[in-house]
Amino acid sequence: MYDWLVDVYFVSPHLFKALITGLLVTTVCSAIGCFIVLKRTSFLADALAHSMLAGVVVGYLFMKLVFGKEAHAPAMLIGSIISGIITVAMIGFVSRFSRVKEDAVIGIMYTGIFAFGGVLVSLFSQYVHIDLLHFIVGQLLGVSDQDLWMMAIVTVVVLSFIVLMFRSLQLVTFDRVMAASLGMNVILLDYMLTTCTAMVVVTGVQVVGVIQVVGLLIAPGATAYLLCDRLKNMLWVSVVFGWTGFLVGYILSENYNVAPGAMIVVVLTAQFLLVFLVAPRYGLLADVQRRFRAIPQQVVEDILGVILRAQQERCGIDDLVTHTQYKADAIRKAVNSMVKKEWLCFEQGIVSFTQEGRKQARRLLRAHRLWETYLQHLGVAEEELHQRAHVLEHLHDEDAVDYLDDKLGHPLTDPHGSEIPEDFEHLVSGEIMTLAILREGHTGEVVRVGKLIVDPVSVGDRVTVGVREDDSRTWVIAVTKSDGKSAEHRFNHEEADEISIRLD
Amino acid sequence: MNQSLPAIEVKNLTVSYGPVPALLDVSLAIDAGQLIGIIGPNGSGKSTLIKSLLGFVKPDFGDVLLFGEDAEKAKGRVAYVPQRGSVDWDFPITVREVALMGRYGKQSWWKELSAEDRDIADHALEQVRMGDFRNRQIGQLSGGQQQRVFMARAIAQGGDILLLDEPFAGVDAATEKAILDVLESTRETGRTLVVVHHDLATASEYFDSLVLLKQRLFAYGPPEHVLHPELLSEVYEGTLRIFANLQSGRSREVGQ
């Protein structure tokens, strides 16, 4: 890379400068752009870009009239940052204290300040030599050394800001209230980010011009957003997209002899559309494929159910076809995907469970039998119970089933007298559960006792759960106190909910 | 922790935005380890009270003390659990990263988080049974799981006081139950939870005590005292159309 750059430098210093400029500018633009995408402030960034014209002119005039210097880059940079901040502050102020909403205020303010800059340019046309056309479409090939130094400084400042303040920026973008509750100065951070955006926009305008600078800022970030689930990765990926967009765009523009700024933005947009199409998770094709490939949950669950009820929990594909109403193709596809998920073993035409598969099946059985019990409570006829529960068992997310279990008083058997599997997801060593959920044989230590329990149980007691009595409406436990005395106690559902036990 | 000091003490708190007071002379004390519901009609100052506890709004008059300290100084001891609707669930952030945010206030902004911070965040996730989901992006979770992640963040923050703004708004019955379980198990760790709630029908079931607000403090105490028909009809005026059979807590509020 370095050798190549040196070669480029000797062959064409012009091209070299354009490359360095482009890489620096796309790096900062893509990085800051991520925050603009996430904060949904792209319109504000657009406003910032336009308002800088006034700042550039004022900076130019100031240096020219006071010090007699022509086109002083630092002064123009500082001027545009100041005009950017004034614009943002005015937008904030006016939209807060008037009934006009923010988007309208942004529209008024930025065209107003941009136009003001335009007026200044023509008013002082004998002093100010700013080419409005360059301002609008960029002048990548006309970057001066002074400009390049400014860009390098801006890059260092902005990148160190992002790296050092990463956590603060992440938090303030994601959850302002929490940021403020931790004592962060949310407003100050906003203005720091705005200042950085203003600086970045000023450099971006050199490359692609004021109209297209928003694309340079946002397109890489938006593209990365479609690919990443972490902000840190999003920043990296965004910068890489910025680089590829710039390089490809620049090379194309040289080949076809078109304006580089426009070509770069076209490539950035094409990149975005391509990723939007093919992104593995948030892309359009992935979405279509998901819908096409999806094996209905219902098929998976019916297969689990058939195997669970089969002799020795083993059966062939034919049995699956006869016991469900699905076509052999669909069954085979589902079995394959379940083997891949390691839920099933498929050997010599026989399907059987893995440990995980049995767990999933028992989870389903628990849902099915709880739904049956519930339907019976509602007065559904005996012969319809199974069919209707069979439909409802597919509503088996953990929260819903636990809720059903509680409402039914944690029954042990379903209406047909079959055992309802226990809540094995939670009933593992070390978990804290209420007594109501425990089954016969569980042991543990009491960690909390509610208001309803007056005397017999206290925190620290050892507990062994016994057989449920009274049509499983009474919980029986053997309690051993710390002094070694043991006794048996009985509780109803409400009381059993009040005793929390850490399982052995 | 000094046992005799209440977790939250509000003395003669008056807050106003412009000429209209949002809170007027509110005084109350909440003991540690309680699950408290704040109820009241829309615009009754519920969120203003929460903001005062967070130290966001400057009171015109009165004090907010947290464990005997000024609210400003106790920043960080109060953890805020945002309203579900105010969170951007598409944000590129994983479950573990959200929990880690709880540690952001403990470390200077330019330093890396320590291994201890990571352990605390992981432990908090285990506590709410979200350890297995730590690398998921937060949008790919169910409603109850999402709530648990933010509870883990609050726990990782080490907050002794948790403020929740309408955690039950817009969730189905099963998720509501799951969230309540999280709240109750968090209370069991000795933390104080203050919850803005709008469903009067469930208020008596869920909370140890209720705060009934409408600019002034109308009632504060056990649910059966606060949910008094006369008191409610005074506070809610015409907005409460159906509210029969109050004591059983089975009726539904229709006024929203």
Task: Please tell me about this protein's structure.
The complex is a heterodimer of chains A (504) and B (256). With 504 residues, chain A is an alpha+beta fold. Helices cover 65% and strands 8% of the residues of chain A. A 6-stranded antiparallel sheet of chain A has the order 4-9-5-6-7-8. A 3-stranded antiparallel sheet of chain A has the order 1-3-2. In chain A, β2 and β3 form a beta hairpin. In chain A, α2 crosses α11 (213-225) and α11 (213-225) packs across α12. Chain A is elongated. With 256 residues, chain B is α/β, with parallel strands linked by helices. Helices cover 30% and strands 23% of the residues of chain B. Chain B contains 8 helices and 10 strands. The N and C termini of chain B lie far apart (40 Å). Chain A binds chain B through residues 38, 164-165, 167-168, 170-171, 173-175, 177-178, 180-183, 225, 228-231, 233-234, 397-400, 402-403, 406, 426, 432, 447-448, 500, and chain B through 54-56, 75-76, 78-80, 82, 86-88, 91-94, 97, 101, 104-105, 109-110, 113, 129, 137, 142, 144, 173-175, 177-178, 185, 188.
Can you summarize the main beta sheet of chain B?
Answer: 6 strands, mixed
CATH class of the largest domain in chain B: Alpha Beta
| Oligomeric status | heterodimer
Stretches with pLDDT under 50, minimum 5 residues of chain B: 241-256
Q: Percent of residues of chain B in helical segments?
A: 25-40%
H/E series of chain A: HHHHHHHHHHHHHHHEHHEEHHHEEEEEHE
Terminal CA distance of chain A: 62 Å
Low-pLDDT regions of chain A: none
